[in-house]
């Protein structure tokens, strides 16, 4: 008795989550080692490219992404996409033991809220129709509605890179993750087109001669490089246990929106599904706010701790000086 298609997709998706969750930690450790020897990635340095541990994380992430890509061939998106949340759990556990990055209880609640909300959104997301050729995907991609989304996405990404990243990149992780997630939604469309082209070519219907195939390949390459660059900066600047869930939430949400616009699946939804998706969005938003509040509170506590230590040190010095003055005065009194 053979393994069912859904079982194959399930195994691949779970394996993908383990690899991707581990890759965050490996790359973070590699970035830390690289920062100790040169310019940090968070301020534009590329020393991490010489760090073997960072490359181990990259290879691990590629394996995970390939497994995730193949999982979509065997199982529907409703089954595969929610399992991406497992990478957050893997990343959080490994961060605790390997990076000593502790996540407070409210942070755990934020992660759970993000995961639950994302799962609700994905489960109730509309089913997309699988195109039969690259040309069909091109026709879908050149629809006015999706072209509007592409123009809006590119405009926001450029605004984030040019205006917001120099000013707020080091203090607000949504700048880096916003770039990664927006570009990632375009990456998914391009990767899907490439996957269909490869599958059709292996089936004997060559898609190599179509210029759209090479166009999607070029777009995917540019988008992936951009994602990796800004994801590295986010990981180098902020806590990995916070970056992972927020990135997952934003990427998943924007990917669902992009797919819905491109494939026009929203028109077939009933009221209950739309209401469930709205509840999922609210849950995700709540989880993201909790995560931000947790991070800000943690930074505030660290600042207060450093300030308290300074004051204690100052008081101790004052005590030593006072005792020294008293000793001198007592000596003078005795001499007299």
TrEMBL record:
TM spans (from-to): 6-26, 46-63, 69-94, 106-125, 145-162, 174-198, 210-230, 242-262, 274-293
One Pfam family of this chain: Mg_trans_NIPA
Record keywords, A-Z: Cell membrane, Endosome, Ion transport, Magnesium, Membrane, Transmembrane, Transmembrane helix, Transport
UniProt topology in membrane: Multi-pass membrane protein
GO cellular component terms, semicolon-separated: early endosome; plasma membrane
InterPro entries reported for this sequence: EmrE-like, Mg_trans_NIPA
Location(s) in or outside the cell: Cell membrane; Early endosome
Record text on subunit structure and interactions: Homodimer.
Family of this protein: Belongs to the NIPA (TC 2.A.7) family.
Record PANTHER family: MAGNESIUM TRANSPORTER NIPA6-RELATED, PTHR12570
Task performed by this protein: Acts as a Mg(2+) transporter. Can also transport other divalent cations such as Fe(2+), Sr(2+), Ba(2+), Mn(2+) and Co(2+) but to a much less extent than Mg(2+).
The protein's name in its UniProt record: Probable magnesium transporter
Organism of origin: Cajanus cajan
Taxonomic lineage: Eukaryota, Viridiplantae, Streptophyta, Embryophyta, Tracheophyta
């Amino acid at each position: 008795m053979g393994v069912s298609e859904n079982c194959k997709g399930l195994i691949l998706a779970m394996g993908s989550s383990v690899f991707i969750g581990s890759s965050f930690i490996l790359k973070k450790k590699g970035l830390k080692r690289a920062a100790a020897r040169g310019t940090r990635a968070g301020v534009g340095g590329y020393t991490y490219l010489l760090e073997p541990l960072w490359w181990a994380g990259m290879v691990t992430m590629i394996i995970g992404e390939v497994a995730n890509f193949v999982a979509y061939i065997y199982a529907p998106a409703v089954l595969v996409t929610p399992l991406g949340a497992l990478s957050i759990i893997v990343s959080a556990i490994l961060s605790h033991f390997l990076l000593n990055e502790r996540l407070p209880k409210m942070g755990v609640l934020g992660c759970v809220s993000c995961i639950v909300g994302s799962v609700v959104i994905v489960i109730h997301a509309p089913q997309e129709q699988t195109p039969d050729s690259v040309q069909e995907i091109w026709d879908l991609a050149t629809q006015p509605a999706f072209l509007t989304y592409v123009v809006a996405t590119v405009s926001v990404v450029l605004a984030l890179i040019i205006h917001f990243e120099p000013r707020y990149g080091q203090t607000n992780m949504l700048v880096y993750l916003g770039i990664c997630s927006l570009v990632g939604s375009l990456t998914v469309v391009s990767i899907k087109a490439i996957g269909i082209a490869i599958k059709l070519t292996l089936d004997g219907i060559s898609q190599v001669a179509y210029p759209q195939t090479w166009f999607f390949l070029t777009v995917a390459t540019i988008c992936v490089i951009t994602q990796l660059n800004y994801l590295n900066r986010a990981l180098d600047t902020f806590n990995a246990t916070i970056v992972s869930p927020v990135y997952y939430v934003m990427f998943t949400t924007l990917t669902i929106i992009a797919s819905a616009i491109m494939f026009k699946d929203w028109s077939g939804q009933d009221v209950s599904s739309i209401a469930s998706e709205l509840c999922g969005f609210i849950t995700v938003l709540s989880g993201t706010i909790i995560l931000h509040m947790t991070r800000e509170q943690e930074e505030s506590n660290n600042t207060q701790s450093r300030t308290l230590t300074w004051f204690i040190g100052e008081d101790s010095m004052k005590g030593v000086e006072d005792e020294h003055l008293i000793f001198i005065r007592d000596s003078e009194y005795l001499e007299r």
